[in-house]
Design brief:
Keywords: Hydrolase. GO terms for molecular function: hydrolase activity. This is 2-pyrone-4,6-dicarboxylate hydrolase. InterPro entries: Amidohydro-rel, Aro_Compnd_Degr_Hydrolases, Metal_Hydrolase. By secondary structure, the protein is α/β, with parallel strands linked by helices. It has a single domain, classed as TIM Barrel (Alpha-Beta Barrel), CATH 3.20.20. The chain has an eight-stranded parallel β-sheet. β1, α1 and β2 form a beta-alpha-beta unit. α7 runs parallel beside α8 and α8 runs parallel beside α9. It is globular. The two termini are 17 Å apart.
């Protein structure tokens, strides 16, 4: 069986469709050209590569806190997709419950874009997400996790870490931010996405500088706390990327089919609430 035929859940991708869902007027970045990915295009990519389920992440680019495109994709999927929404820090619980009822399983926190100060008043939101059994998804870079980790742990929420924690390869495995990401594995409440290699690797494909960090994450978290994601349609990528080579990269990293099953299917089903028996 080809890796493309194995059951997989893509745990980080975006729907960007400015034709049907125009971008918000105040966003800092407006994806265009090959960065755009409609529901139709996304469905074709999923079918081609054997993705049975997906976690659709509402992007700060294009839409910001406008989740209409995300919610439309979730509704059209009939349960095949779950979502991560972007919301204001003071979003009321009633709105969070509405989003949860529409298939949203967590809220995105993006200090790598917004800075840590932007989330200084978000502790109450994190605690309410914990009460609602919703995920706190975080994208950090460099040493931001040092300051953020105690807040995440204090919230009681389940934590989903984007893109390997985005370490700086020039600073080595011992850098404080990456060590803080590794330490969260001991909490039993954190899951890390093996994704976004292009966001922190130096030298481009095949992302050799990212490999030591991926290896360290797998060792610290185990495959029961790791998931895989493509990051399609590759916003702000500095070079041409495609899903197929990324899957082949994982195939070389994890040659055992049973290991890939845990990464691609078993763990994301448990973490995201998909029915593992549903095809």
């Amino acid at each position: 069986m080809s890796i493309f035929d194995e059951d997989k859940i893509d745990c980080h991708n975006h729907i960007l469709d400015p034709l049907h869902f125009p971008y918000a007027a105040d966003v800092a970045y407006r994806p265009a050209g090959q960065e755009i990915g409609s529901q139709v295009q996304h469905a074709a990519v999923m079918e081609a590569y054997g993705m049975r389920r997906a976690l659709i992440v509402g992007p700060n680019s294009g839409y910001g806190e406008d989740n209409r495109c995300l919610l439309a994709a979730l509704a059209a999927s009939r349960g095949a997709f779950k979502g991560i929404a972007v919301v204001p820090n003071h979003t009321p619980t009633e709105r969070l419950l509405e989003l949860k009822g529409q298939g949203v399983v967590g809220i995105a926190f993006n200090p790598s874009l917004q800075g840590l100060a932007y989330y200084a008043d978000a502790k109450d939101l994190m605690r309410r997400l914990a009460d609602l059994d919703m995920l706190v998804q975080v994208q950090v870079h460099e040493d931001q996790m040092v300051e953020l980790a105690p807040v995440l742990l204090d919230s009681g929420a389940q934590i989903l870490i984007d893109h390997c924690g985005r370490p700086d390869p020039a600073r080595g495995l011992g850098q404080a931010g990456f060590q803080a990401v590794l330490a969260l594995a001991r909490s039993g409440r954190a899951t890390v996405k093996l994704s976004g290699l292009q966001k922190f690797s130096t030298g481009g494909w095949p992302f050799a500088s990212a490999l030591p960090y991926v290896d360290a994450l797998i060792e610290a978290y185990g495959l029961d706390q790791c998931v895989w994601a493509s990051d399609w349609p590759f916003l702000k990528a500095s070079e041409r990327l495609d899903v197929g080579p990324l899957l082949r990269w994982i195939e070389k990293l994890l040659p055992d089919v049973a290991d890939r099953r845990r990464l691609f299917w078993d763990t994301p089903c448990r973490v995201l609430g998909f029915d593992p028996a549903t095809h």
